[in-house]
Design goal:
13 helices
């Protein structure tokens, strides 16, 4: 670095506007001077820079993390293997965490993905309700979906209003939200085990969650001195690891099962199923054979 510093300093001192302002806001003026202007960062500033980069990366990925899952639902027009209860619990947990972090004034890089994921979760829940009608057709599913969205909006308005929920109460809600967020993985893990496969669950979503929860442990340690949030990310990482292990375990055996079903149907692909909504959206299978649904 000492050899390159004389050549790099003229560049770092002449960055175009608004990069210097944004850099100082993101890294703090002290760390910006050390990292960019002096090219001689302290260990603390270096850790902060890594944390900020990870946070921005997580927020960027979170903008698309559920898109493969949404596309899987749209392409198959089936919600088989998706736990609606899991998504409802996760959405509620994310909504409370978002409002808690926002009202506490934490940097957006420490929690920004919760807003993006919560919106995508709403879309997934709507699609699951539409495609998991229990003899009610699309109209019944649409009514449930509209009611669910209205309930989430009402919850956000109440929890976000200091007149209804003060910071002390919000702290208790955040503690509960951490537990709910961790518990939300449980129904999906159970559905995967019960059905012997992962259905239309998106592999991209599962593994991105695993990497994101691990990164969030680091960014929380660096940027936010809040044990409630930290312990939630640690527990979430453990359960995300279980989901990732299930995805790997059931992955290889999905193709042979599909081939066997197509052969049994005279070369035709199995018909799509529209299943009842419960703790999961998939009907229980007789055995624990591998799922035949395509995963993205």
């Amino acid at each position: 670095m000492d050899l390159l510093r004389p050549y790099l300093l003229p560049l770092t001192h002449n960055l175009p506007y608004p990069l210097p302002t944004l850099g100082a806001q993101l890294l703090t003026p002290t760390c910006y001077n050390q990292l960019i202007l002096s090219l001689n960062p302290s260990p603390a500033c270096l850790r902060l820079a890594i944390s900020k980069l990870l946070g921005l990366g997580i927020i960027t990925l979170s903008s698309i993390v559920k898109i493969p899952q949404i596309l899987n639902l749209l392409s198959t027009r089936s919600a088989r293997g998706i736990s609606l209860l899991s998504y409802i619990l996760e959405t509620g947990s994310y909504l409370i965490t978002l409002l808690y972090a926002s009202r506490r004034g934490y940097p957006f890089t420490a929690y920004g993905e919760t807003a993006l994921i919560a919106v995508q979760n709403l879309v997934v829940c709507v699609l699951v309700l539409l495609y998991a009608g229990n003899g009610e057709g699309r109209i019944g599913g649409a009514g449930k979906a509209a009611g669910f969205v209205a309930g989430v909006v009402a919850m956000g308005m109440v929890v976000g209003d200091e007149r209804w929920v003060d910071m002390r109460m919000l702290g208790w809600l955040q503690a509960g939200a951490g537990l709910v967020g961790v518990a939300s993985k449980g129904p999906q893990i159970w559905v995967n085990w019960r059905e012997g496969g992962t259905g239309v669950l998106s592999a991209f979503t599962v593994f991105t969650y695993l990497a994101g929860s691990l990164s969030r442990i680091f960014t929380t340690l660096q940027e936010v001195d809040d044990k409630l949030i930290l312990y939630g990310f640690i527990a979430g990482f453990a359960l995300n690891a279980v989901l990732a292990a299930q995805m790997v375990y059931y992955w290889r055996s999905s193709s042979p099962a599909t081939a066997e079903q197509e052969e049994a149907l005279g070369g035709e692909k199995p018909k799509k199923e529209f299943v009842a909504m419960g703790s999961s959206t998939g009907a229980s299978t007789k055995g624990k054979g591998p799922s035949t649904r395509r995963r993205g």
